[in-house]
């Protein structure tokens, strides 16, 4: 139990992960609340984390990445999530962008883009549009061939990390299907507008992205062909769901740390809060939430690492359970600390705001329920 890195789960990579966790903790320290209030992460921090390969740690060694397993990267993501939800959000975007290239790209595209990401170039991923949120079949962004080039036109909303990104993975309609294209963030025709005052993960660099006649080499179209939209989107989202789920484990661990410290130090009615049974119930439920989320994430990661065909549904399950537990657990933590946590700039206030948004991104709670219900119907339970 707890945050100790489990050597068996990490397939011998525990020492590497422990070292990375130490380095990340040193870089972030207790600065996350300040960044959250400012709505901005220091570029120097992102450069350092990027150069360490921490932000997309599953990129294979052959492309210059750390080559971590999903389980090892999960523990790293949880640790990041316990320190700073905004940096963890950037990490999710970076890992998802890298995974989209690895999964959908050709050998040449992998060799061209992945080393840049492993060295610290930042990437953001745009699926969502004003009229395509939960229902991505409403996507209107078009990628059109024009000789050796393509033209990209569309508008993406809420693209996490776009304000820090060097590259964007943009999903859109292509030929008679869909694809994703790698777009330099400074390409002519790309305009970013900051999302004003997000309620959580405030320093994660969210932006709306307009693509107006953006002209790119056709070699930037991942895979080079039109594919089915659900296939293209699910490939990238599965990574994103795993990452968000592990990030929620981190939120729960941060809540447990702050809540347990508080209940053993504050006294009311002549005894420590921890000695009041109703307070203990909250602490116990918080622990149950953290452990439940950890177990479903570990299971999803083991599916990923073993190449199981069940990875997609288990990533949805992990994201659903972990985000729900994080939202409930952070609300319990607010209750436990009461006025002590009732102001921005407090780790628990930040956890509460960040956790709620985790029930929205990478497939809302309801969309996860629909996918899980469909899976249940397709199983032979008899
Ligand atoms: P809607 O789809 O309009 O949903 C509204 C409500 O209706 C929800 O409760 C939803 O569950 C429910 N609903 C919709 N359809 C159904 C249904 N069939 N059955 C039951 N309930 C339904 N997008 C990106 O592309 N890249 C990013 O990096 C990114 N980062 C984000 C970061 C944050 C902090 C946030 C808030 C959003 C981000 N998004 C990003 C957008 C995100 O993916 C969408 O917000 C999400 O998919 C939900 O879409 P929507 O907000 O349009 O809600």
Description:
The two termini are about 35 Å apart. The chain is α+β, with helices and mostly antiparallel strands. The longest helix is centred in the middle third of the chain and has 37 residues, at about 230-265. The protein folds into three domains: about 15-120, Acyl-CoA dehydrogenase/oxidase, N-terminal domain (Butyryl-Coa Dehydrogenase, subunit A, domain 1, Orthogonal Bundle), CATH 1.10.540.10; about 125-230, Beta Barrel (Butyryl-CoA Dehydrogenase, subunit A, domain 2); about 230-380, Butyryl-CoA Dehydrogenase, subunit A, domain 3 (Up-down Bundle). The model has no long low-confidence stretch (mean pLDDT about 95). It has helices spanning about 15-30, 30-40, 45-50, 70-85, 85-105, 105-120, 230-265, 275-305, 310-335, 345-360, 365-380, and strands at about 125, 140-145, 150-160, 165-175, 175-185, 190-195, 205-215, 265-270, 270. The protein has eleven helices and nine strands. It is globular and about 80 Å long. Strands 1, 2, 3, 4, 5, 6 and 7 form a seven-stranded mixed beta sheet that branches. It has a two-stranded antiparallel ribbon with strand order 8-9. Flavin-adenine dinucleotide (FAD) binds near residues 125, 127, 128, 201 and 361.
Topology:
Elements: H1 14-28, H2 32-38, H3 43-51, H4 70-83, H5 85-104, H6 107-119, E1 123-126, E2 142-146, E3 149-159, E4 167-174, E5 177-184, E6 190-194, E7 207-217, H7 229-265, E8 267-268, E9 271-272, H8 277-306, H9 311-337, H10 347-358, H11 365-378
Helix pairs in contact: 1-4, 4-5, 4-7, 5-6, 5-7, 7-8, 7-9, 7-10, 8-9, 9-10, 9-11
The chain binds flavin-adenine dinucleotide (FAD).
Flavin-adenine dinucleotide is lined by residues 93, 125-128, 133-134, 158-160, 198, 201, 206, 357, 360-361, 364, 366-367, 370.
